[in-house]
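User: Here's a protein and a ligand (S-adenosylmethionine). What would the complex look like?
Assistant: Let me lay out the input and then the predicted complex.
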Amino acid sequence: MFIISINIKQLEIHVKKSFEKQLTHKLEKQQLIMNSKNPKDLVPTFFTDTANSYDKIVYWTTFGEDNAWKNKILKQLSSEKTVLDLACGTGILTKLIADKIPQSTIIGLDITKNYIEKAKEKLKSYKNISFVNQDAEKLNLGKKFDCITASYLPKYCISDVLVKKCIEHLNIGGKIILHDFTYPKNKFVRKLWNFYFDILYLIGFFVPDWKKVFVSLPHLIRTSNWVTEYENTMKKNGLKVYKQDLTLGTSAIIVGTKII
Ligand SMILES: C[S@@+](CC[C@H](N)C(=O)[O-])C[C@H]1O[C@@H](n2cnc3c(N)ncnc32)[C@H](O)[C@@H]1O
């Protein structure tokens, strides 16, 4: 009788502890989401401590699709003399651009110092690439480019602000190429997508630097309407627009050409 009552007590403690743990995780999740009304506020949370592992994480968490998506961006480029890669991060796309058009002059720009430092270190052998630590929404480089690219930036920015800044820095005939994640429209793909992010959330407990990203990113993608917003803004500003959905609607590219 005594042993049974001890075991019941232990079970009660165990159930209580696991309930409390679950509640803490739920509250943590909700708090992160509530704190991120403005997507830009998430930028320091996501990127201050993640530069060293970014390349591996983006490759594995997208099952290598990140590389395929960047190749779609590259397909839009031909022989541009000057390219500005906004939110260049660790320079993955910047390097691919330099490899495709070695005669071009490229600037990689990012708001996060640690990412710029990583990109500089990785690409120090590329004499045609330089880096600037600046906010893309306050872009002020005093020169114009044949092409401006940005992979995974649109959802953090206000379309009116970013597009206007890009147009000011774009030569006539030049292109703005924007790429980012999208929330799939197909119901079945959506279910898979949500399930995948639930798994990433659990994986987050083993990769602490990325936990906050895995918690907040799905909500950010679900609530972002960046493709429509940028398409409308580009059209309003006289750009010719081309859109492309990628990998079952999980990401998209939008290209705006400055025709006048
Ligand atoms: C997910 S990383 C993408 C890096 C790179 N474009 C790639 O595709 O691998 C997003 C980057 O956007 C940068 N970023 C976010 N908001 C920015 C802003 N307003 N201006 C410049 N960079 C920004 C972050 O610092 C981060 O390095």
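Summary: Residues 194 and 226 are 19 Å apart (CA to CA).
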